[in-house]
Amino acid sequence: MKNIFLSILSLFFLFSCKKEIFIEEIVPANETGIPITYLVTYEGLEIDSKEEYRAGNVSVVGGRLSSDFPVTEMQIRGRGNSTWQYHEKKPYQLKFSDKLEFLNLPKDKKWVFLAEVSDKTLLRNKIAYEMGSLSSLDYTPQSQYTEVYLNGKYNGTYLVAQKVEESNRRVKLGDTGYLLEIDQQHRLDDDDVYFRTYNYRNQFAGEHFLFNIKEPELEFNNTEYEYIFDLIDTFEKNLQSSIFKDPTEGYAKYIDIDSFIDYFLINEITKNTDAKEYSSIYLNVIPGEKIKMGPVWDFDLAFGNVNYAPSEYSTGFWIKENAWYSRLFEDPTFVSKVKTRFSFYRSQQNLILNKIDAYADLLNKAQKKNDERWGLIGVYHWPNPVVYDTYYEEVEYLKNWYSDRMNWLETAINNL
Questions:
Q1: What DSSP string describes 260-321?
Q2: Burial of 396 (0-12, 13-18, 19+ CB in 10 A)
Q3: Collapsing DSSP states into helix, strand and coil, what is residue 358?
Q4: Per-residue pLDDT tens digits for 38-83
Q5: Is the pTM of this model over 0.70?
Q6: Do residues 182 and 213 lie in contact, with contact meaning Cβ atoms separated by under 8 Å?
Q7: Dihedral of the CA atoms 17, 22, 26, 32 (nearest 10)?
Q8: pLDDT for 282-319, tens place per residue?
Q9: What is the Cα–Cα distance from 123 to 198, expressed in whole angstroms?
Q10: Which residues pair with 291 in a beta bridge?
Q11: 271: which DSSP letter?
């Protein structure tokens, strides 16, 4: 009765908006086995901008996987880059005015709705986060699957995840810490504050990196800006120096090695396309402490799901070619630690395969509805390297690619 009442209440809010909204269909609560999220924008306005929020309300019929969520005011806008640009099914960012528990995930204000169009399995981000939860990284985003109805119309299956941001329930930075993202100039917003280190204060050999300062809000060239600039710059200079292997005065003085290794292995195992040098490469630091890599993020183009880069294939190193990591691998001590840590991830391989099966079974009905809405299965969607006629063939491709990858890496890493 509680679920039915909440569904009726959600529909009441739909009809009480200033502009009438046509309800395309009413689906029995939780017929697919995952929570249902109802998003309503006032006056039925489209979510057509990544900059401008639309006001509205949200509610959830949780079923067996989540608590119900009462009708609550929210704001919502578009997000993402390639998914927003290339696909009809759009990703979103939702925010509340206060920190709230949502879909049984820890309280906070902002949530991202990942559309997972390129990834027809809907699994790659979720499985990568499962790997992150096994790691020693301080934080890995938590997530929950949900069906979404937008202004009364079924909009597909989404993965709702915690946004990568400073929070005592997310990336804990205290009052003075920094969250940085290696990104690209054309992806920045007008008000982003960033810096480069290559060809500016040093001649670091390799790719140049642009560091977008995500947290805190700074001004160019103020004291806090200069601190983080100088810290990264000093680390890079040390990495290129003749003493970089020294255990006390070399790179180990500046970085948290365990986080660098776990971040490397998760992204190398999945051969995450963008994580080599392009974007969504996060690192964080609290003044007085060492630089840490993480959290991990954005894996829809991982596990061989790309047709424009060598990351398509289960063989060959990828993240190891990153300028920082290629230098770190010149240190036998670092290599030895990577070998030891990889053995742990190898021991978890069957667990990960079982999780892929479990989540695929969970999504059995939901993915069918999602496909009926968006026509994904059996159709090329950028940048798929293969196209299969059934969902479970897509899942088998993922599993086989992952198994082949682990087999190749075991030999390759042990031979370093």
A1: HHHHHHHHHHTT-GGGGTTS-EEEEE-TTS-BEE------TT-TT--SSSGGGSSSS-SGGG
A2: middle
A3: helix
A4: 999 999 999 999 999 999 999 999 988 999 999 999 999 999 887 8
A5: yes
A6: no
A7: -90
A8: 999 999 999 999 999 999 999 999 999 999 999 999 99
A9: 36
A10: 255
A11: T
